Structure formats: C-alpha cells, structure tokens
C-alpha cells in the first residue's frame, strides 16, 4: 500500500520515528525513497547503503548519498554513535549474519528502526503444515530463488533483541494488506504479516 | 567514436592560452617559492548559463592536457574525455559549461619545468620548484577568476585529476557544490611510489637527461621516458585486459625467437613508449609523479575543518580491476569523508580494463555519472 506522499506504509511509519534534522543511516536503502523523503521534508542528513547496482543509480538520481557496499562491510567502517537513527527496512532477513548486523547497528546509532516480514504469520504456518514452503506477499519467492536467507518469527526475533541488550521501545504490526493491527502480546506473531520495531541499545 | 559535426561531438575546438601570473605578480606556491610568468592552456565547451550555475571543471590525470573534447582543426582523434563531454553525453554541453586546463608543471601549453626560466633564458630544468596538488588548484582558480566564474557546480577528475578535485573541495569548499573523484587516491602506497621511483630512475639515468638541461644540450632522454611510459602503462591495464588484447600472440607470423619484439604485447608497449615521446616531456613526468607521491591531504591537522563548515557533496568511484589505485584507495577517501559527516556516494564499478577504465565509456559508469550530474544540475 502506498500513501499520498508515495511512500510505502512501513516507510511512512519509519519516517514518523525520525526527528527533524536527524542524521539517518538506511541499510538496504533501495532507490533511496525513505531518505529522499526525510531529506526533503525533515531536513535530515542521510547515508544509504545498497548493494543492487540499479537501485544505487536510482538513489543517485534522487540526490541521496549512497554507498554501494555490502551492509556488513559498510557498518564496520562507520564510527560509534555517529548517526541519530539507523534503519533496516525489510533487509534483516537477507543478511548472512543478522546478529552481527543488529549489534553493529546498536553501536553506530542510539535509535534503531527494524522492519521484518513475519515467518510465523498464520497463512505461512498453514502452508507449511500442508507441506509447502510459505510464499506470500511478504515472502514472494520460491525457496530456491529467494534473496531471504534468515527466516524468523516475531517471537524469535524479540528473543534475539533481548540477548543483544536491545530494548524495544515500540512495536508496530501489520496485516498482510498493510493495515495496522491493534493487538498486543503474542497474538501478532500469528496475525501480523510484518512488523516494525523501534529499538535502542541499553547503554 | 564521434567525428566532426556528428551528434554528440562538441565539434571543432581550439586551445586558448592565458598568462595568469607574471614576473611582477608571481604565483606563490605552497612551499613559499614563487613562479612567474605562468601561462595556462585551456579549453571550454558549452555555454555558461545566466546565473552561472552550470560550470564544471575537468581535472586531467598525469599525462592529460587541456584538450578534453571535440577535435582540433584537421585532427582525426578527439580529446581525451570526448566520450563524456558533448551534446547528450553525461556532461551534456547543451546544459553544462565545461572547463578543462593543462595543469601547472605540465608540458602542453601550461608553464612547466621545460618552459623558459626568465632568469636564464633556458629551460628551468631541475631549478623548477617542487609542486603540490594544492598548487594545481591555485592555478585552476586563477583561470576561473579570469573567466569570471566564482562558483563551480562540480570539479571532476580521474586519478591525479581526482586528487585535484579532492584537494579543491577541502581547501575551498565554498566554491564548489560537488566533487567527483574517480579511480583516485588520497595517499599512495609503497607499491605506487615504487613504480614512480623506477620511472624516474629510467629518465634520470638516461645519459641524455643532462641533469635536466637536455633541451639546451640538444639531447632528449627518449629511452628513459619511453621505458617509464611502458612500465606505467602496464599498471594502467588489468592482467585480463592484456590477456584479452594480446594473449601470447606472436608479433610475426614466422617465429623469430630472440631478444627483439617477439610477442604482440611487446610491440604494443614499444608503440606506447614511442608515441608518448611526441606528446610528453621527461621533466614534467618527474615533477608530476613526485606530486602524487607526496599527496596526503587527510594527514594535515584540520584538513576537513573548512569542508565541514561548507559541505561539498562527493561522488567517489573505483573500478574492480584497477590495481594502480584499487578500490581500497577510494574507500579510504569515503571513510574520511563519511566520518566527517559529509554526503558521499560511492560505487565500485565492474570493468575488465583496470585503471584506464575511468577514460572509457562503460555503460554503468556513464549511467552513474549521468544520474549524478543530472541531479546536481536540478539542485543547483
């Protein structure tokens, strides 16, 4: 779903987590839609990281500073606490070392926004129970061609956050259609197609 | 390749020369030494717009010259960056005003060590002062003052040209919006310096070098200079490029095994070395390579203070097969800029051709430059 400003709904929600004038790092920034929006509407300074060459050129065309690098390699080069916000939007599941990426994100910024597809979403479970790997709007690939390497449920992901001393300040969950869910506790692990977490390192 | 009058070419151009410093008003170098007169050869392409916001300065590499685009009268080969500059090209001369100058210490119209020393009436030779990249920038800026341009949309350069763009952005960030640094370096490695050292030794050990006074002596260190060029040329190409171009092909149909030119690659290098003699000067080669050896702008305390005050936007590009200035050189620049909170875009482009890729019209490379320049003009 796309809002009036042309932003994907989760990007709009992420944008809402960013204070005006912030310095923002977007890991897996794609064509720079979020960062271009933040630069134009909130006076943010920005760095994007993207590995797909065509998307990098798209970001360049939008005037977004972008580093064509692997996220893990780019993170290692970034100074401690040098950003106000670091964003990882639907990218964690493509990382070879998600644990490393999350801990590095906590090192470089005081505020983290992470959005993920939920592997524990009920239709995924039903599909798996029927003997098939889940394919859905959030996970639209077959097992042999998916760029997604790491599949997690929201509950498993929250266990990892806790182990990395990352405090969940807010959690927003969505239906498959992109509607906000007003439910709490473990129910979203069954009902949410995707979630956005706002985190901070406990330091 | 485009020719005269074809779409995409700026057409027939001529190099202009202007005296920017004189005996009485000399150029003051970073070292404190003075130099005068200083003449500068330059070319321009396109038209400066009404609000003077579309000027792009091109900095050439070690052996380049002012003739970046179009054709000199009667010439069959265009300028060295003709694939980039012209109507419809990434630096579209229907929209951008492009300035290109031969750098200080060069030998193609701008004052250099083989120019006449007014005190002696002969070439400066080794009495010419040592230069720094910042001195090149000083002279470029004097040219812009002469042209009535007080602000640049971008400074663009590859290799040594990228060093000039970087230095310019650090020293005078309020005068440019963008710096485009391609296949360049902020600090040569020991290996880079080692290659330069061998090149200089080949020149200076040539008996015809005559301690730099070869012109007055009526000689020329041609052997030394051509060896320097042959060796440097090896470092400009990737191993794959050599393999693709020549493999182990023999130069002659019938094998003549000996110590002459047996392999095609030997003929190619021999040609590179010989052709170079027609357009380049041994003293300039010494001086300009030495400038590169000492270039290390980030080592100066407060080097980034000014640009942090007036942020310049950067595009840093490398090529994956470039082993002269590998991607690690570009990433070093990116790290310094990013950690000083400057907006920087970086790409490592794929190319089979090594360091020289920055002069070629690779589609991904040119698409990147086009996207960047188009956006820069919109933001101007």
TrEMBL record, chain A:
Annotated transmembrane regions: none
Superkingdom, natural source: Bacteria
Pfam hit, one: MetW
NCBIfam families named in the record: metW
This protein's name: Methionine biosynthesis protein MetW
Gene that this polypeptide is encoded by: metW
Automatic annotation (TrEMBL), chain B:
MF-aspect GO terms: homoserine O-acetyltransferase activity; homoserine O-succinyltransferase activity
GO cellular component, one term: cytoplasm
Domain AB hydrolase-1: 55-360
Entry EC no(s): 2.3.1.46
Superkingdom to which the source organism belongs: Bacteria
Keyword Transcription regulation: no
GO biological process: homoserine metabolic process; methionine biosynthetic process
Keywords: Acyltransferase, Amino-acid biosynthesis, Cytoplasm, Methionine biosynthesis, Transferase
Subcellular location(s) per record: Cytoplasm
Cytoplasm keyword on record: yes
Catalytic activity: L-homoserine + succinyl-CoA = O-succinyl-L-homoserine + CoA
Binding site for substrate: 229, 356
Broad EC category: transferase
Main location: cytoplasm
Active site: 159, 322, 355
Site (Important for acyl-CoA specificity): 324
Assembly information from the UniProt record: Homodimer.
Protein name: Homoserine O-succinyltransferase
UniProt source species: Propioniciclava sinopodophylli
Organismal lineage: Bacteria, Bacillati, Actinomycetota, Actinomycetes, Propionibacteriales
């Amino acid at each position: 779903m796309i809002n009036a400003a042309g932003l994907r709904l989760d990007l709009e929600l992420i944008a809402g987590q960013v204070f005006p004038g912030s310095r923002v790092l977007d890991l897996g920034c794609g064509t720079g839609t979020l960062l271009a929006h933040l630069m134009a509407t909130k006076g943010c300074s920005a760095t994007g990281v993207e590995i797909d060459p065509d998307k990098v050129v798209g970001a360049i065309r939008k005037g977004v500073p972008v580093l064509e690098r692997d996220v893990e390699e780019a993170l290692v080069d970034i100074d401690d606490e040098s950003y106000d916000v670091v964003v990882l939007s639907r990218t964690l599941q493509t990382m070879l070392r998600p644990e490393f990426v999350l801990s590095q994100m906590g090192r470089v910024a005081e505020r983290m926004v992470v959005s993920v597809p939920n592997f524990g979403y009920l239709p995924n479970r039903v599909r798996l129970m029927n003997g098939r790997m889940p394919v859905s709007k959030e996970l639209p690939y077959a097992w042999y061609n998916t760029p997604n390497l790491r599949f997690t449920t929201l509950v498993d992901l929250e266990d990892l956050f806790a182990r990395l001393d990352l405090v969940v300040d807010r959690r927003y969950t969505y239906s498959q259609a992109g509607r906000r869910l007003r439910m709490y506790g473990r129910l979203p692990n069954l009902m949410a197609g995707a979630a956005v977490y706002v985190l901070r390192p406990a330091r | 390749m485009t020719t005269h009058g074809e779409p995409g070419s700026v057409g027939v151009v001529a190099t202009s020369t202007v005296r920017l410093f004189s005996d009485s008003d000399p150029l003051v170098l970073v070292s404190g030494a003075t130099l005068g007169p200083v003449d500068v050869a330059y070319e321009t392409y396109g038209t400066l717009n009404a609000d003077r916001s579309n000027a792009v300065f091109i900095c050439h590499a070690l052996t380049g010259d002012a003739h970046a685009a179009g054709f000199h009268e009667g010439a069959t080969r265009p300028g060295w960056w003709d694939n980039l500059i012209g109507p419809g090209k990434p630096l579209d001369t229907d929209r951008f005003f492009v300035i290109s100058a031969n750098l200080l210490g060069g030998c193609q119209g701008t004052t250099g060590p083989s120019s006449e020393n007014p005190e002696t009436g002969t070439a400066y030779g080794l009495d010419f002062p040592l230069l720094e990249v910042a001195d090149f920038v000083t002279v470029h800026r004097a040219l812009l003052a002469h042209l009535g341009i007080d602000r640049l949309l971008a400074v663009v350069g590859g290799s040594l040209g990228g060093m000039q763009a970087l230095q310019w952005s650090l020293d005078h960030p309020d005068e440019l919006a963008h710096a485009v640094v391609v296949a360049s370096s902020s600090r040569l490695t020991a290996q880079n310096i080692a290659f330069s050292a061998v090149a200089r030794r080949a020149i200076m050990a040539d008996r015809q070098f005559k301690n730099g006074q070869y012109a007055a002596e009526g000689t020329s260190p041609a052997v030394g200079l051509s060896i320097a060029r042959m060796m440097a040329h090896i470092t400009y190409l990737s191993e794959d490029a050599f393999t693709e171009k020549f493999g182990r092909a023999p130069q002659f149909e019938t094998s003549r095994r000996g110590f002459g030119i047996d392999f095609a690659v030997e003929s190619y290098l021999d040609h590179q070395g010989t052709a170079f003699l027609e357009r380049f000067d041994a003293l300039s080669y010494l001086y300009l390579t030495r400038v590169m050896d000492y270039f290390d702008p980030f080592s100066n305390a407060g080097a980034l203070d000014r640009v942090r005050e007036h942020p310049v936007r950067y595009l840093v590009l490398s090529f994956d097969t470039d082993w002269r200035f590998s991607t690690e050189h570009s990433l070093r620049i990116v790290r310094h800029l990013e950690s000083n909170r400057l907006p920087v875009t970086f790409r490592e482009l794929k190319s089979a051709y090594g360091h020289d890729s920055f002069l070629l019209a690779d589609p991904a490379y040119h698409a990147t430059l086009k996207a960047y320049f188009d956006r820069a003009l919109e933001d101007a």
